[in-house]
Amino acid sequence: MSKLRNEKNGNRSFFSLKAKWSIGTGIGVLVIFAVFSVMLFQSFSSLLMNQEKQYAEDSLRTAIGKLADNEGELTKQDVVKSLSLKITPSDNQNLYTNSVYTSLTRENIGISVYNLSGDLVFASRNVPVKFSSGSYQESRLAKDKNGRSIYVLSHSVYSKTTHQTIGYVQVTNSLISYDRTRQRLVIIFLVFGLTAAFALALLAYGLSSWLLRPVDDIHDVIGKITQGDESEALANVRVPEYNYKDELVELGEMFNGMLDRMERYVEQQQQFVEDVSHELRTPVAIIQGHLEMLNRWGKDDPKVLDNSIKASLQEINRMKSLVQEMLDLSRAEQVEIQFANEVTDVKEVGMLVYSNFKMIHPEFTFVMDCDLKEATKVQIYRNHLEQILIILMDNAVKYSTNRPEVHMSLAKTSRYAQIVVQDFGEGISQENASKIFDRFYRVDKARSRDKGGNGLGLAIAHRLIEGYHGKMTVESVLGQGSVFRISLPLIREEEKVIEESERSL
Ligand code: ADP
């Protein structure tokens, strides 16, 4: 498939719809996920930070509460006593076993106590940040020597009894677990985001490949038709059918329908060319035969000469009428566009054709049954309606047998004008009745030819009626006669009124 695409587009490379779809989906998911992740990350971080601050504040509050019992400036002994710390000889600063303090000092939290001059008198752990504040209280974010973030909280200690400042306490909360949790979060979000984007891009690719199958099939079909033998491909290649329905499947079905119609047109075209050459072959062969005969010996015999010239002229006339009828047929295909505004009175044309036939064929009985009291307008070019009625009346006369009688009737319903031509002649079998509107179709070729018929009359009439959005049908019983019915849509009332008012001006 992609090979075909590349071949046909030469060196032009492009992203397939599926690739665009999947990349788009992947990027979309990534962006949405990133936005949510950042928001989640921010709120989670601030939650964690608040928690860390809370730990530090709790520790500070407890330490200050205990140290405030002293009266003078804080010394190491005061602090140890206040916090109930037990100092072992080996470690004079860091070891402590006090239950209160143990519960206070979490792994990350360090508490250091300073006297009024800012000198360290006690530290629970190594002090990661130098005490710098002599102010009443301070909270800040600092970095230790390894570059790790540390939350620093310091506060003065007031004696409960003297209400004087007796020292300072500094609580440091090294944010290792906070940083570690944040790093983990970043990794989780990244892994999840990328996996989700990749998985959804894959899913989108699979889904689009599945959904776009009809488009691929249409693409293949067009490729096959344009590459190979067009008419053969047109007959054999179709978009496969699917057992589900959606817009693209429907598109494939419509495309198949279009190919079917194209195939029919091409066939009709080929058939037409075949029919025409076949029809022309007989008169040409007859004329050729006569001319050869004259060329060999006939020109000296006035009788033969006369016969041959008459026969040749007759065939030339047939060819002339054949060419004219073919032209009429081809023009009949375009009436919708060319004669869209023509309006004709059915009654007037019907009566005219009827009286003409009455005059030309005095041996026939013509009966007119006209239900139309006033002019009945239909949208058709006048000469076309006349031509159609002449074809039907002419056939009725031609194919009448021992009852030389033709009936014409004119009527209308609420929407249609109806014209019926009935004869009592040889009739048409059921099988043939469905074919007589085809080009060049004649029930009895030889007899029809004798009567001057080319088998195009009904095809022309039928095509014209269809072109004017009408209908033409036949009912016939072999040996008893035929009834041809035409119905043409009436011009709408308001249009009639407009037309009449224009005429009265
Ligand atoms: P043609 O020029 O041969 O009459 P048409 O297209 O007018 O061609 O008619 C096609 C065929 O239909 C005729 O050859 C004839 O066999 C049959 N046909 C047409 N009209 C009638 C009719 N009124 N009665 C019997 N057969 C008819």
Secondary-structure map:
Blueprint: H1 2-8, H2 17-67, H3 76-82, H4 99-104, E1 109-114, E2 120-123, E3 137-143, E4 149-158, E5 165-174, H5 176-211, H6 213-227, H7 230-236, H8 247-296, H9 302-332, H10 335-338, E6 344-345, H11 346-360, E7 365-370, E8 377-378, H12 382-398, E9 405-412, E10 416-423, H13 430-433, H14 445-450, H15 457-467, E11 471-477, E12 481-489, H16 493-504
Parallel strand pairs: 7-9
Antiparallel strand pairs: 1-2, 1-5, 3-4, 4-5, 6-8, 9-10, 10-12, 11-12
Bound molecules: adenosine-5'-diphosphate (ADP).
Adenosine-5'-diphosphate binds next to helix 12 and helix 15.
Enzyme class: transferase
Catalytic activity: ATP + protein L-histidine = ADP + protein N-phospho-L-histidine
GO molecular function: phosphorelay sensor kinase activity
Architecture overview:
There is one protein chain. The chain has a 5-stranded antiparallel sheet with strand order 2-1-5-4-3. It has a 5-stranded mixed sheet with strand order 7-9-10-12-11, with helices on one face. It has a two-stranded antiparallel ribbon with strand order 6-8. Residues 1-12 and 90-97 have low confidence and may be disordered. The chain has 505 residues and is of the alpha+beta class. Strand 9 (405-412) and strand 10 form a beta hairpin. The protein contains 16 helices and 12 strands. Helices cover 55% and strands 16% of the residues. It is rod-shaped. Helix 6 (213-227) runs antiparallel to helix 7 and helix 9 runs parallel beside helix 15. It has 3 domains: 23-185, 2-Layer Sandwich (Beta-Lactamase), CATH 3.30.450; 228-324, Helix Hairpins (Orthogonal Bundle), CATH 1.10.287; 333-504, Histidine kinase-like ATPase, C-terminal domain (Heat Shock Protein 90, 2-Layer Sandwich). Bound molecules: adenosine-5'-diphosphate (ADP). Adenosine-5'-diphosphate binds next to helix 12 and helix 15.
